[in-house]
Specification:
The chain is mainly β. Helices cover 0% and strands 45% of the residues.
């Protein structure tokens, strides 16, 4: 090891072993929602089929949660909330009466679908099966859609049907 932190090996040296330590991905689990969902709820409701369960091998390990959700609405704000069990994770600091969703969407084109992403490194501190799920709600009276446009007309070039995913990875501490 020289003063710059470089290691020099003799020409005939060999190395073997297994990489260990923090940051190693131990398992990956994904759910893909292929069907659609609609709601008029003003409170958080589960998106059927948009949840995934992982069982960490150590309580000190972390779980990297990656969400990609397709939202559309009837010209209003719609919100998505990521939860571990019944607890919202990655929630912003409180600020007066402002809402604190995980992600939001707003469509002025009722034939459009917006993909919204969120990535969060969670510390569930457990070795029990842990479920991550997405919930949605409308800001005001109206309709939201998951995986389809609000208008949802049967045309070839617009008003698509798309998919949403949650991918979780156990990361060694």
């Amino acid at each position: 090891l020289d003063s710059s932190g470089n290691v020099t090996f003799p020409a005939n040296a060999t190395c073997s072993g297994t990489a260990t330590g923090f940051g190693k991905i131990l398992q990956v689990v994904q759910t893909v929602k292929l069907d659609t969902f609609s709601s008029t709820s003003l409170t958080d409701v589960d998106v059927p089929g948009l949840s995934v369960s992982i069982t960490p091998s150590s309580s000190s390990n972390k779980v990297l949660v990656m969400v990609n959700m397709a939202l559309s609405s009837q010209s209003m704000f719609v919100y998505g909330v990521l939860k571990r069990g019944s607890t919202q994770i990655g929630e912003a600091d409180a600020a007066s009466n402002r809402i604190r969703p995980t992600l939001m969407g707003y469509n002025t084109n009722e034939g459009e679908v917006e993909h919204r992403d969120f990535i969060f490194l969670d510390s569930p501190n457990t070795t029990s099966a842990t479920t991550y799920k997405m919930q949605v709600r409308c800001a005001t009276s109206g309709h939201l859609r998951v995986n389809k446009s609000y208008r949802d007309t049967d045309t070839v070039n617009y008003d698509p049907r798309v998919s949403s995913t949650i991918t979780v990875m156990e990361v060694a501490a």
